[in-house]
Amino acid sequence: MNKIEVIGLGAGDLDQLSIGLYRKLTKAEQMVYVRTTEHPVVQALQEEGVSFKSFDEIYASETAFEQVYERIAAVLLEKASEENVIYAVPGHPMLAERSIQLLLQQQEVDIEILGGQSYLDALFSSLRIDPIEGFQFVDAATFQRSELNYRQHLVFCQVYDQWIASELKLTLLEDLPPHYEVTIVEAAGSRQEQITVVPLEKLDHAFKQSNLVSVYVPPAEKEMLHHTFDRLKEVIAELRGPNGCPWDKEQTHESLRTYAIEEVYELIDAIDEMDDEGIVEELGDMLLQVMLHSQIGTDDGYFTIDDVIASITNKMIYRHPHVFGDLSVGSVNEVYKNWEQLKKEEKGDTRKTVLSGIPSHLPALAKAFKLQQKAAKVGFTWEQAGEIWDKLQEELFEVKQAIKEEDLVEVEKEFGDVLFVLANLTRYYGINPEVALNRANQKFISRFGYIEQQLEALGKKPEEATLEEMDAYWEQAKEREGL
Fold first, then answer.
1. Residues 247-295 pLDDT 10s
2. Angle in degrees, CA 316, 321, 325, rounded to 5
3. Fewer C-beta neighbours within 10 Å, C or N terminus of the chain?
4. Contacts with 63 (C-beta within 8 Å, 6 or more apart), sequence order
5. Domain 351-431: which CATH class?
6. Is the pLDDT of residue 349 over 80?
7. pLDDT value, residue 333
8. CA-to-CA distance for 204 and 327, rounded, in angstroms?
9. Among candidates 245, 246, 253, which has minimal Cα distance to 298?
10. What number does CATH give the domain 3-117?
11. Phi, psi values for residue 472, rounded to 5°
12. Same fold for the pair 229-318 and 351-431
């Protein structure tokens, strides 16, 4: 079986190449393939008469790096079917070399790694950093922002050109301030080494195109990372820690219940008011509830925030097979149907009846809505809205009869029936009755507030005004809403 011998050319000049690899390259009887000729060692060996076949033309003809590396691997494997092949790459073959990883994935041709000096050794020396403190090595051309850990030393390799440098800068600016200093390192450890420290916002302007460029981002102080989830976890843990806040330390799941309810309604208010800043604040308050309950779980030894996140992540993947699996859906109704079926399978026999699973503390109107929603899913519902309207008229008549008879218990029951039917009507039209009633409450507060303002301007209190005066101002408030 023929083989491909892979040689690492080191990080910089010819001095970094071992004597054994130097002899291998200079005495090779067959053509030596190189990923690129844009490397000082290749240029020095060419001056000594060594011939190379490079893949630079593939870089010029493809638009994506993955396609480049796939084509390189394909060419090398084809050549190796005929004879042994030597393939040289910058640095060390096992460091940030995608073409090597593709070659190692196949079984037809033997791949022998002959070594080479990693440029990381030189980089650590040049930057004077110790990777034991925490180090992340990232491909600038393919990374995702969510992968970055700003509390560690960050080194971005493969910063080939100004476009990559610009994209890198824009991503880092999502998390770090414009004045944050980063370091551009070119040809680390060689005689051509250049180190330039620049503000992050100037990264792409100070960039000089080269295949030997890396960008170093030093660890960020925690004060810069208040927008990150890990920093939030630290803050909550500290609040409930030995030196934390007395109030936070004494909270329990039970004591926080009221706050959770309040935060939900405050979020609804912000949404109704289309207040983006308010929505951000209220979502933060809701997240605080999640974090406090999770920290209590951690402190008690029962669960952590990781368990909470894993639970919802697993649930979302399981209940969306049309996104994370191979199930096809043609409509939102099919999504609902699949969701309910998967929910049943997930819960098993824990819910014995159709109406099980509705929170006991849900407000009565919202509970009426959920009860009828669940009953409707198994066919227990009116087919036409007109039938529900007829039922509403029937219940209103029964209320009036109970009032005439002055039976307060029956009046209460019949008003409950009216509200129950109204909840069913909102369900039929796709309206949440709690949200609808909350809107009406807010509208009333706004209009009555306008009445109070107008009366105050006249030196009057509401109890001193006539009903006709207040009605007039009420109509003015309605007209103002239409502006």
1. 999 999 999 988 988 898 899 889 988 999 999 999 999 999 999 999 9
2. 120
3. C
4. none
5. mainly alpha
6. no
7. 80
8. 44
9. 253
10. 3.40.1010.10
11. -65, -45
12. yes
The dihedral formed by the CA atoms of 460, 462, 465 and 466, expressed in degrees to the nearest 10: 170
Report the alpha-carbon distance of residue 208 to residue 56 in Å, rounded. 19
Tell me the Ramachandran region of residue 139: left when phi exceeds 0, alpha when psi lies from -120 to 50, beta otherwise.
Answer: beta
Q: E strands within 317-456?
A: none
**Three-class DSSP category at 459:** coil
Q: Hey, what are 229's tokens? A: 């989830």
- What are the C-alpha distances in Å from 200 to residues 162, 216, 218, 337? 14, 11, 11, 50
Least confident of 161-175, 352-366, 437-451: 352-366
Average pLDDT over residues 30-51: 89
Taking alpha carbons only, the member of 178, 141, 8 closest to residue 64 is 141
pLDDT at 339 > cutoff 90: no
DSSP sequence for 110-178? EEEE-----HHHHHHHHHT--GGG-EEEEETTT--GGG--TTSEEEEE---SHHHHHHHHHHHTTTS-T
Give the model's pLDDT for residue 74. 93
Kindly state the percentage of the chain with pLDDT values over 90. 61
- Residue 363: pLDDT band (50, 70, 90) is confident
- In this prediction, residues 18-23 reach a mean pLDDT of 90
Residues 41/92, Cβ–Cβ less than 8 Å: no
Distances (CA, A) of 219 to 60, 130, 131, 234, 409: 36, 12, 11, 17, 70
Nearest to 190 by CA among 125, 136, 129, 115: 125
pLDDT surpasses 80 at 336? no
Contacts of 348 (CB under 8 A, 6+ apart): none
Q: Which fold has domain 121-225?
A: 3.30.950
Report the distance separating Cα 10 and Cα 104, nearest Å: 20
CATH 1.10.287.1080 given to domain 229-318: yes
- Asked if residues 421 and 398 have their Cβ atoms less than 8 Å apart, the reply is no
Q: What is the mean pLDDT of residues 166-184?
A: 96
**Encoding tokens for residue 278?**
């308010």
Q: For the chain, which residues make up each domain, given as ranges?
A: 3-117, 121-225, 229-318, 351-431, 435-481
Read off the amino acid at residue 358.
I
- With 0-12 / 13-18 / 19 or more C-beta atoms within 10 angstroms meaning exposed / middle / buried, residue 42 is buried
pLDDT by residue (tens digit) across 47-67? 898 889 999 999 888 888 889
Q: What is the model's pLDDT at position 188? A: 83
| Separation between Cα atoms, residue 395 and residue 410, nearest integer Å | 12
Residues 6 or more apart whose CB falls under 8 angstroms from that of 279 comprise: 267, 270, 271
- Distance in angstroms between the alpha carbons of the first and the last residue of the chain: 83
Q: At a CB cut-off of 8 Å and minimum separation 6, what does 210 contact?
A: 38, 186, 187
